[in-house]
Amino acid sequence: MGRSSSPEPLVGDAGKPRGGPPVGTVIEVFADVACPFTHVGLRRFVERRATEGRDDVRLRVRAWPLEIVNGSPLDPAFITEEVDELRRTAAPGLFRGYREEVFPATSLPALALAAAAYAARPELGELVSLELRDALFEQGVDISRVDVLTGLAQRHDLDFDPDDLTAVLADHARGVQREVIGSPHFFTPTGSFFCPALDITRDGEGHLHITADPVGFEQFLAGCFT
């Protein structure tokens, strides 16, 4: 499903973030923390980055809160359908701890925590963004629980107010301006890509079909590791 649009200017500031490796390229991605497609895409990107030895390429994961975009919270049964299909086809090694009964009622506080981590240090923001998704999809943790989020914030020595959605709403506004079409939507130095790791369709009877999209993903990676 990796569809590229016209080239975008390089997103983010080059430099050396405190405590992290030198940064040459920042890949901006708009996504919801409760989106299973994003979990696959980010995992695949991080694995490939490690293989390529390209720690200079970092992720800036911005909030694309689907409950705001869609006007209602995500339906746990709908997400479970996506997870089950991913387990069966494109990502059999992921989602081992996912449980529908602990799917978060809202993703907004978790997105706020990720934003607070980015405000502290860019590399910490990336780490927390990945940890939140791992907690939900691999450990079966309800990431809307304040005690869960507070514990994660304390572990990283972060100041965090779960009710402060200023940065989340700012990301959403930025995404609207950049014409984000869904979660995840990546912006690289050479173009933008929506859900580049997966091909997602529904047949005439409404059945969901998900397969890996190796061609789209390689095109996306070529834009990241220029």
Overview of the molecule:
The chain has 226 residues and is of the alpha+beta class. The chain has a single domain (3-224), classed as Glutaredoxin, CATH 3.40.30. It is 42% helix and 15% strand. Helix 4 runs antiparallel to helix 5 (122-137). The longest helix is centred in the N-terminal third of the chain and has 17 residues, at 36-52. Residues 4-19 have low confidence and may be disordered.
Quick take:
With about 230 residues, this protein is an alpha+beta fold. Helix content is about 40%, strand content about 15%.
- Structural category is alpha+beta
Major sheet summary line: 5 strands, mixed
CATH-assigned fold name? Glutaredoxin
What is the string of helix and strand elements?
EEHEHHHHHHEEEEH
Average pLDDT for all residues: 92
- In the sheet with the most strands, the strands line up as 1-5-4-2-3
What is the count of structural domains? 1
